[in-house]
Amino acid sequence: MRIAVLGLGAVGRGLLQMLAAKPELGFVLTAVADSTSARIDPDGLDPVAILDEKCGTGRCAPSGLSAADVIASGAYDVLVELTPTNAMTGEPALTHIRSALESGRHVVTSNKGPIATDYSGLAALADDARVALRFEATVGGAIPVLHAIRDGLAGNSYSSITGVLNGTCNYILTRMDDEGLTYEQALTEARELGYAEADPTYDVRGIDAAIKLVILANTCWGLGVTLDDVAITGIDGLTVDALRLAATQDCTIRLIGEAVPAENLLRVAPRVLPRNHPLVIKGTLNAIMLSTDMAGEVTLMGKGAGSVETASALIGDLIAIRDRYDGSG
Ligand SMILES: NC(=O)c1ccc[n+]([C@@H]2O[C@H](COP(=O)([O-])OP(=O)(O)OC[C@H]3O[C@@H](n4cnc5c(N)ncnc54)[C@H](OP(=O)(O)O)[C@@H]3O)[C@@H](O)[C@H]2O)c1
Known about the structure:
This protein is an alpha/beta fold. It folds into 2 domains: 2-142 and 307-325, NAD(P)-binding Rossmann-like Domain (Rossmann fold); 149-303, 2-Layer Sandwich (Dihydrodipicolinate Reductase, domain 2). Helix content is 41%, strand content 21%. A hairpin with a 4-residue loop joins strand 2 and strand 3. Helix 4 runs parallel beside helix 5, helix 5 (112-129) runs parallel beside helix 10 and helix 7 (167-179) packs across helix 8 (183-192). The radius of gyration is 20 Å and the shape is globular. The protein binds NADP nicotinamide-adenine-dinucleotide phosphate. NADP nicotinamide-adenine-dinucleotide phosphate is lined by residues 6-12, 33-36, 67, 82-85, 92, 110-112, 137, 141, 305-306, 310.
């Protein structure tokens, strides 16, 4: 199966490293692009050579081609879209993904923007073209929650999804609870360790978690909701005193995303939870609890971000597509 990769940041490079490390997967890299360059070879590119060039020059090719040329080339079966997230417009990924689906190509993405802004439109395009649109890496990093919903727990009805969906917030709350740090101290530490962006607004105000909740709700129930439908409270107003008060009841506080369709509830907010609750996890981990009719409560926990961890989710999607559509797989 031939794959084209748009975006060679942390995630794109992690994917190329794994393609190089696991040739037995049998994926052929035929095109790559970053923000200023692109390279296309229908006979296959060497992922290691691309990584070396990107590392040495900051680009994946000298000049000339762009991401649009990669998409138009048609020299791929699956477009892997890994450009930066824009939660408001979904661009440039929305245009990339629409173009690939319209030309009958499968799409795998880690980019939350297009899935949160136009899931129904993209799903309809994929249906019309009889191709796959998969986005496991948009929620929970390495945690295979969308696979679990679609495959492992197929046939179940879901009454609710609750989860710790943002590792930066979970790290900050863990440090405030364990060490008595103030919010500002814990945020500074998270920045120093590379867990928080220079501008952490999306994370600490709960927007990143809300986008992931929207993706989960739309995937699980086809609700067709958007970010505007989520009631969002971040952790930026949280004090150490609130955590201390929770501790007197053997509880702590976590930023929890919660979707309960029967109650019309779609919310991200700090919640007081008993310390032995399955969603009270430490550090940058993510956890997602699915309440089902047959399997009961199923909680998945793992690394919510990271270069190779996210590549794991992308490769899972690529293999699912190959198994379903590609006779050679
Ligand atoms: N990092 C994680 O752990 C993680 C986990 C889950 C999901 N995600 C999502 O996965 C996506 C990629 O994340 P990342 O951490 O790899 O981001 P990143 O490090 O910022 O890299 C983004 C890449 O996209 C390229 N790019 C930007 N605009 C482009 C365009 N118009 N056409 C083609 N390439 C373009 C950039 O090019 P240059 O190299 O030229 O700047 C860069 O290579 C994001 O949407 C992110 O939210 C990330």
